[in-house]
Amino acid sequence: MKVTRLTITVILSAALFAVLLYSGLKPSFGPRNTTPHIALVMKSLANEFFLTMEHEARAHQKSSATEYRLTANGIRNETDVSGQVRIIENMIAQDVDALIVAPADSRALIPVCAQAIQQGIVVINIDNRFNQQTLAAKSLQIPFVGPGNRKGAKMVGSYLADHLEAGDGVAVLEGIPTAHNSQERKAGFIEAFREKALDILTIRSAEWDMEKANIVVAALINEYPDVKGIACANDSMALGAVAALKAAGKLNSVYVVGFDNISAVQEMLKNGQILATADQFGGQIAVNGIEYALEILKTGTHKADQETPVELITKQSIENNNE
Questions:
Q1: What is the CATH code of the structural domain delimited by 23-145+283-306?
Q2: What number is the average pLDDT over the span 235-250?
Q3: Rounded to an integer, what distance in angstroms lies between the CA atom of residue 295 and that of residue 233?
């Protein structure tokens, strides 16, 4: 076959197109819709953290109505991975320009996100990081916007450890074990406890759920009656832990910490039922993800990961902010 300049040009263009797709970017000709259509896909809206995320994302869109359209969806509960897959498939069918995804599972959502990328849709990962090995195996690069979960959990765990003595027994309640943010928070708690030489009695999953945490902690305190602290990987589980301790008459003898700083824990922080939590500013994470996507659609430039703030929240910090 005779190789012409036109043939070479076509081959190079096709190669560039493929690179753009598999790097999580749309081709440089920009969004297919006159006004970009952004889809925010979250975990359970029964969790106040994600409800706040949705509200702030909608407020951002309302203030930028001429810049993009927003569709926001969540799943029925934290383990409804198949529900998230269906939502993303529906968004692909609607020909959205970008997907902002807080995955319920760090691996299971990657195949459907790969399908989106193959359709030229920009994908931004927020809140819970996709598994990096799985992404690499599929030659995918998806920008992540979210906090340093391990760092935040270590701050909370260290604050709890400062209220205990070496050798005291503590327990860890993790979220869904396959979720990267659950793994990172668990690791942060463990690191803080080992530095203080605390005795890690057990690590159990309550799958981010308040009712499951209530059941798990009720069993835990029977098995380990001398436990002095319970570190929960989110505030919903911390609420369940407090309920179990209260029912057992042990609320004043066991410290509980959480992660997320939802409004439901504010009064408990003030009255000491919960010792500390971490604020990762969930609403702003979604907004940052949306803004990343819009910039990529506008410039065609691949964006690096962005670590967002995380802050220790205690009774004292709340009182200081109210002064």
A1: 3.40.50.2300
A2: 98
A3: 32
